[in-house]
Amino acid sequence: MLYSRQTKARQFMRSKIRRGFLLFIWLVLLALPSAALAEGPTQPDQLFRDASNLISAGDYETALEVLDRIPAPGGTDSAADFIKSRVQKAQLYHALAMFDEADASCHEVLALFPDNIEATNLLDSLAKAKKPKWLLFIDDMKLFLPSLIQGAGITLFLVVITMVISPIGGLLIALGRISGVPPLRWLSWFIIWFFRGTPLLLQLFFIYYGLPSLGVTLSPTTSAIIGLGINYSAYLAEIIRAGIESIDSGQMEAAKAIGMTYTQAMRRVIVPQTYKRLMPPVGNEFIALIKDTALVSTIAMVELMRSANQMFNTYFNVNVLIIAAMIYLLFTTVFTVTFETIEKRVGAYENR
Amino acid sequence: MKTDNEKNPTSNNAPIICLSNITKRFGKTTAVDAVDLSVMPQEKVVIIGPSGSGKSTLLRAVNILEEIDEGTIVFEGKSVGYVEKKGKRVLDSQKNICALRAEIGMVFQHFYLFPHMTVLENIMEGPVTVQGKSREEAHIIAEDMLEKVGLSEKRDVFPATLSGGQKQRVAIARALAMKPKIMLFDEPTSALDPELVGEVFNTIKSLADEGMTMIIVTHQMGFAREIADRVIFMEKGRFITEAPPVEFFGSCMTNTRVASFVDSIL
């Protein structure tokens, strides 16, 4: 008995609570829209919300109409809302490539608030958008070229210095490789083995960041010249060695037979004959060098790649990269043509 | 070491070059086997023999292009090319060897002109680089030598445009520009088309007539007959027969090996 009474009472209580809860939910659900309605459709916030919903739904025309319903300032109407709506309109027109309408919308704002920055900036970018693409590119060039050219100067400097150092270093290492003195052969072999076998980037890091811990601190420029110089010497050494070994051994004999020393024979007879054969592979190396200088941007040298990167991070403008690429291409083209010309000239004796 | 039975190196009658016991091995094969050879001033020695007989190796041993394993080379009375060091025989200093080579002219089968130099520059190279003569002086010498080999009109061209015969004549002029005391010819006409052999032969012949001392290694019997004072038949690194040409092409033909070789070439 007792048990059943208690149960009944509990059930009653439960149903009461449930009913009350449900009623509350209903009330809330009913109240929400009416509260929104109470604020009225003319409220700017609602209009902005509607417009943004319409935009995300893709209905730009209606969105434009909705934004247009926000009135010009006067009395209680806020200037900020008006400006915001017209700017949004202008942006929308801009996105739709309706530049005249976008302009008009900006001018609506400027007519009342001539100093408004948002509208002025938008007008500027609209003016840009209306310009042909290539004209814009020219504008970017004017903006980016000065610092890119500065960087390109550093790149060119490194290339030229390395082009002077590495053939000399390469020739010395190559002569060491074919020398009759075993320690020289081993040393040359080791240099080639090490500097061809490890990444140039690592070598540069080691020279610039690693050597200070051994008590040798070098400037970025010195580090870059040493790194590029040794690395390219090692590569050129093998090319030069192949060039020397490709010369008929009879040439060395003929030179010796008239009484030349080994050094004289190398300098006067053997090495000059390798020039023509060396031009294509050495030209290849130097073109690789032009691009490899980009690696020294990692050791605090502001060369072409580094300055392009800096500009790109500031402006997020792809044209920076395109202009930098054009400068690299200009360099490689000039070098290619130069090398082809030199090759023809130094090899002229073969078919004159 | 001294070949005492030969004439003393005092008069003009001393040999200009005296090779004794020259031995050169390549691995297990002996290319030149204990050869003796003396050449008197103005003498023309022609060495013939089948290929692989060691003639070229012997010739190259004379100016140390080939390092010999045994034997001595005496040039104008002085032992050259090798010195004793701690009881071992080693190559002499580069300076001395180069000085020796500068006095010995050599002409190769494949000419080995320097292709990146004009004809004149080829000939001037030795006097300028090796003897340290001025370019003007070397120029005069080179012009002289070119005239001697009859190629003055080719002075400014590059070797690539020359015929084989012309190349060899320039090579001879290049060797002569050093004013050598003896000329070594290593098969000078073997790489030439038959119709070009004559011009080179005539050049060497006129040089011989001027009294140049020379050792010629060849397959060309014309050299042996017309130029040689002495013909040597060499085989397997040894001298088989050594005689004046008249004798060589006469009585020596009784040697069946020599006769069959000469026959095979003629």
Characteristic key phrases:
heterodimer; A: 352 residues; mainly alpha; Serine Threonine Protein Phosphatase 5, Tetratricopeptide repeat; MetI-like fold; 0% strand; elongated; B: 266 residues; alpha/beta; 6-stranded mixed beta sheet; 4-stranded antiparallel beta sheet; 9 helices; 12 strands; 35% helix; disordered N terminus
The count of strands of chain A amounts to 0
State the CATH topology of the largest domain in chain A.
Answer: MetI-like fold
Which structural class do the helices and strands of chain B define? Answer: alpha/beta
Order of helices and strands of chain A: HHHHHHHHHHHHHH
Whole-number tally of structural domains of chain A:
2
Q: How many strands of chain B?
A: 12
Topology summary:
The complex is a heterodimer of chains A (352) and B (266).
Chain A: H1 2-39, H2 44-57, H3 60-68, H4 79-95, H5 99-112, H6 117-130, H7 133-177, H8 182-197, H9 200-210, H10 220-245, H11 249-257, H12 262-292, H13 304-315, H14 318-346
Chain B: E1 17-26, E2 29-39, E3 44-48, H1 55-62, E4 70-75, E5 78-80, E6 82-85, E7 88-91, H2 94-102, E8 104-107, H3 119-130, H4 135-148, H5 164-176, E9 182-186, H6 194-209, E10 214-217, H7 221-227, E11 230-235, E12 238-243, H8 245-248, H9 256-265
Parallel strand pairs in B: 3-10, 3-11, 8-9, 9-10
Antiparallel strand pairs in B: 1-2, 1-4, 4-5, 6-7, 11-12
Helix pairs in contact in B: 3-4, 3-5, 4-5, 5-6, 6-7
Polypeptide structure, described:
The complex is a heterodimer of chains A (352) and B (266). Chain A is an all-alpha fold and 352 residues long. Chain A has two domains: 89 residues, Alpha Horseshoe (Serine Threonine Protein Phosphatase 5, Tetratricopeptide repeat); 218 residues, Orthogonal Bundle (MetI-like fold). In chain A, 81% of the residues lie in helices and 0% in strands. In chain A, helix 7 runs antiparallel to helix 8 and helix 7 runs antiparallel to helix 13. Chain B is built from nine helices and twelve strands. Chain B has a six-stranded mixed sheet with strand order 8-9-10-3-11-12, with helices on both faces. In chain B, strands 2-1-4-5 form a four-stranded antiparallel sheet. In chain B, helix 3 packs parallel to helix 5. Chain B starts with 16 loop residues before the first strand and ends with a helix. The N terminus of chain B is likely disordered. At the A-B interface, helix 11 and helix 12 of A face helix 2, strand 8, helix 3 and helix 5 of B.
